[in-house]
Design brief:
- This protein is mainly alpha-helical and about 110 residues long.
- It is built from 2 helices and no strands.
- Helices cover about 80% and strands about 0% of the residues.
Length: about 110
């Protein structure tokens, strides 16, 4: 009977106690939700990071396979594929030279200066 509040200000005290309780509850809920959201984002970051590292390693392995010819070749004789590439390049340059001559002749015929 002594602990029961009575008299003036009882409503204000109850209102203040209720406001404090709701403020504390909403702060707790916010902090809990924010913590869960941060954990989820952190988890996503770790998964994406692992995925990027895995893809990066795949790229490195593939690049090593493709370009290994450049640094692992020990023979003094050019590789067969290099010989083919050089021949194709020479052939292409000859064809481009012919094309250039045709283009120059055509430009002269239509009166376009070089």
């Amino acid at each position: 009977a002594i602990a029961v509040e009575r008299g003036r200000g009882t409503f204000c005290r109850m209102k203040c106690a209720l406001c404090k309780h709701t403020d504390d509850a909403s702060k707790d809920m916010f902090h809990q939700t924010a913590s869960e959201a941060l954990d989820s984002v952190s988890s996503i970051i770790h998964r994406v990071s692992a995925s990027i590292k895995g893809l990066g390693n795949n790229v490195i392995v593939r690049m090593e396979k493709v370009f290994s010819v450049c640094w692992t070749r020990q023979a003094t004789k050019p590789l067969y594929s290099e010989q083919i590439a050089k021949k194709k390049r020479r052939d292409l340059l000859r064809q481009l030279e012919g094309l250039s001559q045709v283009q120059c002749a055509t430009m002269e015929k239509i009166g376009v200066p070089k």
